[in-house]
Specification:
Low-confidence stretches: none
Strand order of the largest sheet: 1-2
Shape: globular
Structural class: mainly alpha
Number of strands: 2
CATH topology of the largest domain: Ferritin
Number of domains: 2
CATH architecture of the largest domain: Up-down Bundle
Distance between the termini: 83 Å
Radius of gyration: 27 Å
Number of helices: 18
Order of helices and strands: HHHHHHHHHEHHHHEHHHHH
Largest sheet: 2 strands, parallel
Strand content: under 5%
Mean pLDDT: 95
CATH class of the largest domain: Mainly Alpha
Length: 458
Amino acid sequence: MTDHTPFGHVPASRPQERSAAAERRRAFPFRFPADPRPLGGAFTVADSVARLTRFYYLERRLAQAIGAWTLSIPEFEVKVESGRHLFWHADAARRLRDRLNEQQLRLAAVDEFRDADIDRLIDEVLSAEDTAELLVGVHQVIGRALEIAYRHHAERTCPIADAPTIRLLAQIRLDYEPMLAWADQAIAAYVAGGIDPARLERWRWHCDRLLASIGGVTGADRLTAAPACLRSVETAFVRGTAPRRDLRFVTFDRTGDYDAFDGGARLEPGYDKERLAFVRAQRDELDAIEAFGTVLWDIRFTDFDAEYRLARMVWDESRHTEIGHRAMMALGFDPFELPNRLTPSTCRGPMEPALALAEINMIGEVGVLKSIGRIVDEAAASGDTLMTHIADYIRADERTHVRSGQVVMKSICDLPVAELDQRMRAAFTRCLYDLGAITQGEAKIALSRESLEHLIGE
């Protein structure tokens, strides 16, 4: 029988050369592990591009969707964790985008991709009745389906030729494992706290049916009938504009001054007072999660790099909030005994994105950088290792945010800096007047950056 290769040709092998090769192998002293991976897989490059493009688009849309809800999530733990998840989805989109570019798609073509079926699915998930339903749609329906699809794709594609895709899917799944586990536990907590499990199950079934009707996350599954009624068709989704907090918080929004709302200073002037104000401000970075997440939603599809930078800032602010929360406990407080300042989010929530971003970038983050160096130095001089540790990391983040925020502003706004600054200060002056934080006389001219910094509490 003629010996053919898998390609259908008789090998042009010479017996003496083959024998010599076998002898050289026997003489070679090292026995390295054999690579068990086979050559070949289920997908062509075109197949892979089609699936990865849908994965990319779903990840990008999930990051945007979580951004749309950042103001409307009341529960502290869920708002903070969702900030982390927002970035994980944006980072998954970035990895997939890079791989698609390697597979010869122009980045512009990747970013211009749209899918009306996926948009309809995301619109419906956004129409969740409450945060528990949002977690069901984002994590237990779409997230779970993506995790399964990533695993199956990695198992079926060519393990040698398509190794970069396998590696990036494994990296994405490292984030998915804790994210999906947390979501399951959070939904169980909602049920244990009184949320009707039957309502959540109906919503899960509804979203699952809608996903199945578009061929699943790959688009290749058998199409099924879509649900007859969609909430998002009956009432189009509109993002919230008011910051929400759970019932554990005491909140205030008519001033940015902690002492003014507290009815007087808790501590005498000095390092201890500055430390407490700094720690409280970090816990209240909940408003920064809301600011960057909302801007991400509002500028969606304007520029991928801008979305990604905003997503990273959301994650950073989630960490700052956690730092402040834990530092309060380290100082001996129940974090919920200290009132939460809503003034920045109350003003920024309804604003156009360029003005909201300009305020937090030009005033909030620049204001932090003006004072944080002194806090780091004073903490070190006082032997306060905890404050030295956290403030140093936060300072590094805020430096990056100032730079990234300026890049984002340039991509979404073509106003000269002076005009943007004037419009921003005028808008926040009006907001503070509406809140009753300033008088009509004070509101006649746009407040200075320094005045806004004090009145808003940045």
